[in-house]
Amino acid sequence: QVQLVESGGDSVQAGGSLRLSCAVSGYTFSDYCMGWFRQTPGKEREAVSLINSNGSTRYALSAKGRFTISQDNAKNTLYLQMNSLKPEDTAMYYCVAAVYSGSGSCSLVSGWYEYWGQGTQVTVSS
Length: 126
Hints:
Blueprint: E1 3-7, E2 11-13, E3 18-25, E4 32-39, E5 46-52, E6 57-59, E7 67-72, E8 77-82, E9 91-99, E10 115-116, E11 120-125
């Protein structure tokens, strides 16, 4: 069974940086999409960044240029480096994964992802 466990969330000041980590276990598929969604109270979950098994990445416009997604397969870990954080980045961040063998980019629709972590809270103060 696939398990995703996030860590690295914290409370930081605007302009600061954080690196989120997602420890992955039970995932042996060679073709996949993995990444990060976030959610604030009263809002739908929104995609932040996704990466597929070929290393192709996709970012939300709000994250592009500030956030970087990466993976270390040897450590079975997915990362999200977040720089120049803004108060609007405050949210619960979720690690997600899905089997994907297609040729297109990863989906930005939350319902498309089969596996979810429990989330890690990021709070950015002004």
